[in-house]
Design a protein that fits this description.
2 domains; six-stranded antiparallel sheet; Rieske Iron-sulfur Protein; 21% helix; binds FE2/S2 (inorganic) cluster; alpha+beta; single chain
């Protein structure tokens, strides 16, 4: 075997032996598209996700989550019907600051520039002009459920 033929065979052998490594790297299940976030609670079959218990909501006045389906969440009891819950994307429509539930005033208050929102999310006091985005929410027994989307 001459030198040229030998080097040719070495090249083909090196390429063939590295092919499985290349294929394994390309088909890794660690890619972001293939994985699901393990920290997010799974939604029920009807698309609702448990975000807390009624007792927590009653004692704290609201349930706040920093990341619910990619956005902050605030859930309150409907002050006009305490058997119902209402849920909002917790970003003021003025400049995206979070709001807090003010049980005494019955409003969701933004501390940045003073906007207030009624318990249905509509604007009670500006500078915000648009309502808070809402989520579908419900109580099932003592479980507070919110539907993303
Ligand atoms: S961000 Fe809420 S009032 Fe400006």
């Amino acid at each position: 075997m001459d030198r040229r033929t030998f080097l040719s065979w070495v090249g083909v052998g090196t390429l063939a032996s590295s092919l499985p490594v290349v294929l394994a790297a390309c088909t890794s299940s660690d890619s972001p598209e293939a994985s699901t976030p393990e920290s997010s609670p799974a939604a029920n079959a009807d698309g609702f996700t448990e975000v807390g218990k009624l007792a927590d909501l009653e004692s704290a006045g609201s349930i706040v989550q920093e990341d619910f389906a990619g956005a902050p969440l605030i859930v309150i009891l409907n002050p006009e019907d305490k058997t119902q819950v209402v849920a909002f994307k917790n970003k003021c429509s003025h400049q995206q600051c979070p709001v807090d539930w003010n049980a005494e005033g019955g409003t969701l208050d933004c501390g940045c520039h003073g906007s207030k929102f009624k318990a249905d999310g509509t604007v009670a006091n500006g500078p915000a002009k648009d309502p808070l985005p809402t989520y579908e929410a419900k109580l099932e027994g003592d479980t507070v459920l919110v539907k993303a989307g």
